[in-house]
């Protein structure tokens, strides 16, 4: 039987397609085998551990492939990770990548409708979560009747955010971690540490107050009552701690 030119052409085309598919398969196997992530070098993380970030960054099927991972975080649109602003990726080798994370500039959070609303130094709500994340102080006493993500907290006096920023920077510098910060209507501050509270008053002499508080905190452990620092200055020698009165039992 004779084979005409069209049949010969079709046979050659079919063979070419099979060769291309075979080559693509071999290339895919090589890529999947060679470009496999064995380690991520992570920098910039504070509120997530390395293991937590690895789990959050590598959730999809092909995330363990270094080429795919690099393309995804360099040019793609991956899902947002809570509290992370931007992610930069650098390929160090076929098996290792360097990941630099830039966390959102959060200074505290407020509670609203059962959620924790985290805000930045300007009072902009940058994150909403149903869980409390360690490292950010709870702020109480601020008055607002509504809240919108990515917009400023509608408080009466925006000056409070400058005070909060200064406070949280001092907390970080001196390794102080209050359970919460309470503001009165006239911006008088109270810090809560378990059953003890520290009345700071306004933000006058705040640096000196926090430095002194750092030395006093170990002595407050296990105590219930109020430490009065409202009128503290660099010349203050004695600070009063008022123990909470216990009810008399009959």
TrEMBL record:
Ranges that cross the membrane: 16-40
Q: Which domain of life is it from?
A: Bacteria
**InterPro entries in the cross-refs:** FtsQ_DivIB (IPR050487)
Q: Which controlled-vocabulary keywords does the entry list?
A: Cell cycle, Cell division, Cell membrane, Membrane, Transmembrane, Transmembrane helix
The UniProt entry's GO biological process terms, in alphabetical order, are: cell division
Presence of the UniProt keyword Glycosyltransferase in the record: no
Q: Provide GO CC annotations from the record.
A: plasma membrane
Protein name, per record: Cell division protein FtsQ
């Amino acid at each position: 039987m004779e084979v005409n030119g069209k049949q010969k052409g079709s046979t050659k085309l079919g063979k070419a397609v099979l060769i291309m598919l075979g080559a693509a398969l071999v290339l895919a196997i090589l890529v999947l085998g060679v470009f496999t992530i064995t380690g991520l070098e992570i920098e910039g993380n504070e509120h997530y551990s390395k293991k937590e970030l690895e789990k959050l960054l590598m959730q999809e099927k092909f995330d363990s492939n270094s080429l795919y991972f690099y393309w995804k975080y360099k040019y793609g649109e991956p899902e947002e990770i809570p509290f992370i602003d931007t992610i930069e990726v650098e390929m160090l080798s076929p098996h290792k990548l360097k990941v630099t994370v830039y966390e959102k500039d959060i200074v505290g959070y407020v509670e609203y409708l059962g959620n924790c609303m985290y805000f930045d130094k300007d009072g902009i709500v940058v994150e909403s979560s149903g869980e409390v994340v360690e490292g950010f102080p709870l702020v109480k006493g601020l008055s607002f009747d509504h809240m919108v993500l990515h917009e400023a907290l509608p408080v009466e006096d925006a000056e409070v955010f400058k005070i909060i920023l200064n406070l949280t920077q001092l907390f970080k510098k001196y390794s102080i971690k209050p359970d919460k910060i309470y503001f009165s209507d006239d911006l008088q501050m109270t810090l809560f540490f378990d059953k003890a509270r520290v009345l700071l008053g306004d933000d006058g002499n705040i640096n000196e107050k926090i430095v002194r508080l750092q030395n006093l905190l170990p002595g407050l452990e296990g105590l219930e009552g109020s430490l009065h620092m409202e009128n503290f200055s660099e010349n203050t020698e004695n600070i009063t701690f008022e123990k909470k009165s216990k009810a008399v039992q009959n």
